[in-house]
Design a protein that fits this description.
This protein has 300 residues and is of the alpha/beta class. It contains 13 helices and 10 strands. The strands form 2 sheets. Strands 1-2-3-4-5-7-9-10 form an 8-stranded parallel sheet. β3, α7 and β4 form a beta-alpha-beta unit. It is globular and about 80 Å long. The termini are far apart. The mean pLDDT is 86.
């Protein structure tokens, strides 16, 4: 009897090890519905160590459909009027029972939900915060609760100086700052240099950062061994001074980066002089004609 129990425990441990590899979406919508033993395995906190939340609901001003949201409501028979962003995030976070090491929050995350994450998962190593959460009423002091934080990904640079001030005091193990798609100006670059001069890894992929701001970073962060500045807007990938300043960085990438295009009023007026607006008038005339034909068909 004892041997049989050990064998069952061993099988469950092996199953948990496999299910640990799947994401939050599969843990909620696929795995639990396979069989009873798989459902039991998904209740193990080890399966919820890496919480990369799917975008189950559009961010403000976005209207693209999100299949996960619809599937979740269907599988768990939850009406739209009863669904709560806070309750959903808390549900997932609570499954980890404080063992989560990685959390990437969804775009519609609220300040209340983030506070719950900070209270329940203090041992996070990786944290990703979306831009609309940062633009909201988030308490940036809560980031200081993550004493083991090594990688911080921010969806924008709003309140960056305040965030880095907290990180510099409380998150002594931070190695990697990610600001992909963010607007990194002179103030933001200066804040990074002043508050995190010893940062090892910096990701600026697809960021808006001008040449002078990048120079500030390269001159001030002497310990960088990784800098991803690919597909940025604001400087040329073949800039000689930038290449020289980055020569001591083990992995520096800036492929696809381009200068920001600037148009003066004179340039715009000059371009408009070369446009034949008579073609547009003809197009509108065709459309009006089609509408008249449709009206005639409807009246008939």
């Amino acid at each position: 009897m004892e041997d049989e129990r050990r064998w069952e425990d061993l099988k469950m441990d092996c199953l948990v090890k496999v299910i640990e590899k799947v994401g939050v979406e599969s843990l909620l919508l696929d795995v639990p519905f396979v069989c009873k033993s798989w459902h039991k395995a998904t209740l193990n906190p080890s399966c919820w160590k890496n919480l990369v939340f799917p975008e189950f609901e559009p961010e403000p001003f976005e209207f693209d459909p999100y299949p996960f949201y619809d599937r979740f409501l269907t599988e768990y028979r939850v009406g739209e009027d009863r669904f709560s962003v806070n309750d959903f995030i808390k549900l997932v976070v609570n499954r980890s029972r404080g063992s989560a090491v990685s959390v990437k929050l969804p775009g519609c995350c609220t300040a209340e939900a983030f506070e719950h994450v900070a209270n329940v998962c203090p041992d996070l190593v990786i944290l990703g915060l979306p831009r609309f959460l940062l633009y909201g009423s988030i308490n940036v002091e809560l980031i200081g609760k993550f004493k083991c934080l090594a990688i911080l990904s921010l969806g924008c640079c709003h309140e960056l100086e305040k965030i880095l001030a907290v990180v510099s005091v409380h998150c002594k193990f931070l190695l990697h700052l990610i600001l992909s798609n963010a607007n990194v100006g002179k103030d933001e670059a200066t804040a990074i240099v002043n508050l995190m001069p010893n940062i090892k890894r910096l990701t600026l992929h697809r960021a808006n950062i001008d040449r002078d701001s990048l120079v500030v970073l390269l001159q001030g962060c002497k310990d960088l061994d990784y800098l991803d500045a690919r597909d940025c807007i604001g400087f040329k990938e073949d800039d000689e001074e930038i290449s020289r300043l980055a020569s001591n960085i083990k992995m520096f990438m800036c492929e696809g980066s381009k200068e920001r295009l600037s148009f003066s009023v004179e340039d715009m007026l000059s371009a408009m002089e070369n446009i034949d607006f008579s073609k547009f008038a003809g197009m509108f005339a065709e459309v009006d004609g089609d509408e008249e034909e449709v009206d005639e068909e409807v009246n008939e």
